[in-house]
Amino acid sequence: MEETPSTAEPVSTRDCANCGQPxxxxxxxSPLCSDCRESFTRLHIPIWIRIFAGGxxxxxxxxxxxLPGSISLGVHLEKGKKAVREKSFSTAEKELTKVLEKVPSNxxxxxxxxxxxxxxxxxxxxxxxxxxxxDVNIEDKDLYGEIEKVMMKAGGYVTNDTLELxxxxxxxxAHIPDSAWARFLQAHGDDRYAELTYATQLYDRKxxxxxxxxxxxxxxxxxxxxxxxxxxxxxxxxxxxxNGAMAYVDRILAINPxxxxxxxxxxxxxxxxxxxxxxLDLALRLYAMNKRDAYGxxxxxxxxxxxxxxxxxxxxxKKAQSAAMDSTGKENLKYALDVINNKEKx
Amino acid sequence: MFxxxxxxxxxxxxxxxxxxxxxxxxxxxxxKVPVFKVVYFQMGNPAGYVLHEAVKNKAQGILISVGPFIxxxxxxxxxxxxxxxxxxxxxxxxxxxxxxxxxxxxxxMHAFPSRGDANVIWHSIKEESTPAWVRIIxxxxxxxxxxxxLGSFFWLDLLYGAGxxxxxxxxxxxxxx
Lengths: 346, 177
Hints:
The complex is a heterodimer. By secondary structure, chain A is mainly alpha-helical. Helix content of chain A is 69%, strand content 1%.
């Protein structure tokens, strides 16, 4: 390895050890005249070292220029992964999307985004992410395990051939006899989607008690089955059991504390419980989190309305009406407007 | 632990040796200490050295000896920082990223002062005229340099280089997240 010897012991002569001229006065270990001392003190760097140092300097400048972007990308990835671990799935989706905009091939970000999109019920993103991960080898065993868990859950969110075949045997899907449903569910006890379909039909028929029982059946095979929990909120709300509805909302928020639907439902339940201020505060927090979600927007419109903030309410209605919305969004907005105009009971 | 001859490692990581000697030279220039000869790189032992006038100011002498530790660490870290994530986290690295990592590790692993540097400090601070505070700082520095030198047999220098070039970006991200 390299050494740095410090030699040049002081010599007794007073002449300059380099040029022979009389050495300068002074308390220096080496007898050097002032010219020679100055010359040895100056930087003498060979041209090839200057070129080398120039190259390093260029690379250093390049590094300094690209460093912030690289660090920022790493921070977004870590924040996204941390958010998934902490079940802050909305934050995770935002952070990981930023990573994938720059590095679309990153499997870690893509895998975590799949998990976040699932729990955020962002099914378009979930499906698109799933397609991009198809045939990709995921080396991280923990991540792979989490993805597998989510994929198993996702199976209960879509229909299947057996259920479709069963439904096709009846001319009107909405009027399948209860006895037929009972036989089907007995034979296919693990079919959460079938249980949800039947529970939803019962809910539409206002048979809340039975609908709740069937939804609970689905929750027995997956206690995080979000559509059943959401149905539970509706059942309890329509039964007038607002505490029961809040219990279902809290179960949703335990799975995803940043669930836009869950937070909206909680805010609306507060409003129904006449807790106007907490309802408004929560609706505002939700809107700050996600300004584009139609359910969140209509919740804030309702919160403004019940808190007698007509100016804010009307401004938001105007803004929402001018924004592009899908059919569900329009339906949500229409519901809020109908409540305001007393066409719909809240 | 497998054995690779020292000259091979030195040859492969020659940029670090050059920066190490440049750092000594720059610190000499900063303290206006005459430099008589600089060997930036050679195939031998030592691989490089700086021959300068004995430094009367003991603190300056210590700083000249440990200068490469500061300069090589900072340059090694800065060069490799932006490349560490594309190479080790995002797997999107291009050839330039690998060059930056190679340079960063090479430079950082030559940050440790050599035993020659330690000897200079040792001889300097054991003189009676050395102030007590310089001795308090100097003796542990010499001890650490010797430990580092001993550790290089177990790839400590390479581990340090990799830690600076690879570990530091992850540490920064961990602290910022």
